[in-house]
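Notebook, p. 212. Picked up where the previous page left off. The plan for this session was modest: take the two constructs that came back from the sequencing core last week, fold each one, and keep the raw output in the notebook itself so nobody has to go hunting through shared drives later. Recording the first one now, exactly as returned: residue sequence, then the structure token string.
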Amino acid sequence: MGELGINSSEELDLLVKYLGPQSYEHEVSIRASNAGDHSKGIERIWRRLDERYGRPEAIEAAFKKKLESFPKLAHKDKEKLADAPQKYIKLYALLDDQSNRTLARSELFDIMQIPESDSLQYTLSTCAGRSSVSGRKASGLIIESLDGKFRTELPTVIECNQIPTDRQEIPTPDVIRHYKHLRDVKLPPHDDDADILLLIGRDLPEVHHILDQRTGPRATPFAQKLRLGCVVIGNVCLGKTHPPRVLANVNKTILENGRPTIFDTCEHRLAVGVKRVKNDIGHDVFVRSVDDEKIGYSIENKMFLDIMDHEFSKTSDGNWIGPLPFRSPRPRLPNNRNDALKRAHTLQKSLLKDRDKRNHFTTFMKRLMDNRHAEIAPPLIRDEECWYLPLFGVYHPQKRDQVRVVFDSSAKHQGISLNNVLITGPDLLNSLIGVLLRFRKEPVAVIADIQQMFYEFRVSKKHRNYLRFFWHKDNDPSNELIEYRMCVHVFGNAPSPAVATYGLRRCVENQENDCGAVVRDFVRRNFYVDDGLGSFST
């Protein structure tokens, strides 16, 4: 107050103006009782304020109250954190103590804007073997539990797109409520907007520590509480059955007694048949049928062949056209346009940074357009079912100057992908060993190769809107993205190999007059995918 240069009366006026309600009443009372001595009144007021608010206990209590009322910020408060410089994403993470490194899918690296220059070459070992892989790496990423109680820095994260992404493995409250011993386990509801993008290995051991556990009777699932949340381990029973996660086609062999088996039959087994001939008992006792080793198709494979037999046809201009073999019944596909557009923008950024990759992509797409394998997509009818395919490039290790553009039919949206609703079809390939042995049989060799075999078979017009994709106008990555659709069966669709093999054989079916029996047999017996190998005596 001395710095303001005011007298005692003016100081009293200021205190009256700025004190709180309770202190104000006491100040007025003290001022009235010391009306003739303002200096003494000021001294009494300051002494009372010090006793009331200056004690250590009072200061500590006021400080704690202030902290309790301080606004809390969690990872869910996106609006409050909008101005923060850090980037964040809500995701599902897998914990795998059998992995020695922490891995993440490309989407996480793209969201965090990790440049492709921060990459390394590493060896990936899986059940399928060892392979050399290139991917980005990132350091300094922070992971936090959903409740915000645990937060730690991740070790160096390596880009890998072979992380499992089966959303049906995510535990939900609806699952555990059927088990009495799990009812006190707190699980958050399933979040459709959060993707499985991260796999944490044993290089971050503290997140694998088990803080609590709930076990039950034999053959029931159990739960573990970890620092990042709770996990449920075990099979979930519905009506004492375990519904399969994935529907699989099983090729069965029909034995001579009519019973099917999934096991391979022995090539040296003895098949005995009895044919009774009048007046010639014993004639042709050991008879073998041409169907002895014939593989029986599954129900879905029979459905695939039935669709192809009825809808695969030759057009007036000489092109073969076939449908997409949809499962029946099947769920309706959701509209994944926004997801595909986001992937297209990510690819565009990558192409603009890498000139060689950009040239390879535009060359491939130019050939696609020139051959009328793709067309500008027409407008959709309201509520018309469709699907958009994201694109990515694949390089052959020995052909680094060429790229094969793959249509990602396995990309999921709301837990479903195009491949989930298509029938893969039977394995119609010839035995590779048989093809090679017949190739070495005669002195004159003949080889053939079908370039872009899948693209030789067009897709029915009614199914082309399931093959929509985004690409740049006039094939220029600097131009805007517009919608196209494929007119042919694409590399990336699960049924494409079976469709192409079926179509190739259909081309020579009943065509002996045009191409001859030799060509027909060559296609039927000596082709393996798109490569033909044959040998002849002359």
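Okay, moving on. Second construct, recorded in the same format:
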Amino acid sequence: MPGLQDGKYRKYSQEVVRIACGRVRKGELSYGAAARMYGIPKSTIRDKCSGRTPIESTQGPDPILSKKEEEQLVEWAIGMAKIGYGRTMMEMKKVVKKFLDADGRPNPFVDNLPGRRWTRNFLRRHQELSMRLPEALGRERADVTVNKIQRWFRECSDYMVESKNEEVFADPRRLFNADEIGFPLQGKTERVIAPKGAKNVYQQTASTRQQITVVGACNAIGQYIPPLIIFPGVRFAYDPLDGAPADSSFAKSKTGWMNSEIFYEYITNHFHPFVRSLNIPFPIILFVDGHVSHINLETADFCKENDIILYCLPSHASHIIQPLDVAVYKSVKASWYNCVREYTIQHPGQVVTKQAFSSVFAEAWKEGAKSKNAISGFRKCGLFPFNPAAVDTDKLLPSTVYHDHTSLTPASTSTNTPIRQPPTTTSTSSPTKTALLALESAIGPDLIATYHRRLREGYDVPDPMYETWKKLNTVDRPPHDIPTTSGTSHTVPLPRRPSASVGRHPETSYTSPSLAQHLVYPRREYQQKANANKKVLPNVISGTIFREMLREKEEKKREEEEAKEERKRVREEKRMENEKKKLKTKKRTQQIDENICSKCKKKYDDNPDVWIGCEGCPRWYHHACTDITDLDSMTNEELAELDWRCERCL
């Protein structure tokens, strides 16, 4: 078999074959000389130079998809991963199945669904792809746009100039970032060595899903503020800081989460004193996210009085522009999981609890909170040096699903809803080649073969479509497809549909028109409701405007609380009044003996003409016991119409 030596494939690349054939065509080498120089069989060089076989070929059976089709499939998979809609391998195979169902191409697959072997070979042919475990990206984070980040940098730059704090932004010692992170006591399970075929493989972990919150801070030269550990609970029968990093402090809350009171105590009693001890000149800048726990009037007033510029980062963008999240906490979290596993190994039968947290966390903090990580975080976020271009814009590609509708795929013309194609950093084809492929997809393989025959045989007919195709094809033809010597001719490969034999595919440049209909990108119509009453908050939390807004907010909140208490008081008064009425009515109806006169207490006799009943209660009275003077002179009809009530019902 050509290309084999002692049962193994020869070691020569396509590039070497291309160079060897090029030199033969130019007359620089003979077939034998080229074979000896480049280690390629003589027959292989002769076949490729004569056009019997293409210059670019692969060993073994041909893939089901053409090279160009696989390139488009790879580009689509990479684009989907960049916008946060990465496909699993099974989903990828289902896309190929839908394409093969529509294209009708012969293949060896069962029900047109590729198997494991195709998957393995596909990944081997395209080394730029790999199976990765994606990070969860919330809806709000996916909506962060490039414009939002650029606007924040512009506002920050304007503030730098207006407040005359350029020297602060230029001094890395005075640029700080603070943020909190949660550490689950349960840890994380990973793949372990176990018997092959075992049905049940376990790993002992804590039985709680509880986590401990840690607040960290660092500056742009890699100096860290000792962490604040927030424990859930009220009382502790142990020292919660036993084994914690040096100079750490702790707080407690019912939920174990950060709140505005804890953040105020952290700034006043922990962060500010420690920064003073480092002999760092003030004012300083502290970048925090816009979480509600970081925004309260007491903290803003303290920062203003002590030359701490509390500056708010863009909302939902901590994975992009917050140094601790970008470069520090990821390594600390990875170290934490390793330390949890090591603790369970060293303490058989035990798991990490709140009491043991500090000692385990200390090792993770030591391993992950490196100075180089903090420096790298500020640099990657563009905060120091101040450089908006340093932000990784690839993290903002998921927002194009909601906001960028300018670029559409060809498939959008066949559906009612246009599908957006995200931008990619690399392109596999030039604009001319892209135009040629689009034209060939439209005219079909039969007409393409006719055009190639016209071009090869050198005759033209008046055909504007052919003239356009000819110009594009001539510009885009690779050098090795053009004859370079008078004695050697090269047949231009014709894009064609697959043959009836299973396992054969079209030439590498062929692309089925139905492929683009299945390689679609998601697009979601998203319109954020405009709130005309919502105020735009300034970024400087410790600034005068922000503090005035906080005071107005607290005043409004106080007025609302007072109005709420007033409404509550009115409701309580009405309730008490109703309760009194009910009690009064209840007393009227309880223990009333209808067989006696309710005033003189004499028993009822057989003379009903001397008795009268109250219309408001079941009591009965003698005529003489009432306050009606002319009762005895009234007729029965007048008595029936009389609406008399006793003194207890009045």
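Notes on construct two before I forget. Residues 1-7, 405-429, 476-505 have pLDDT under 50 and may be disordered.
Flagging for discussion at group meeting.
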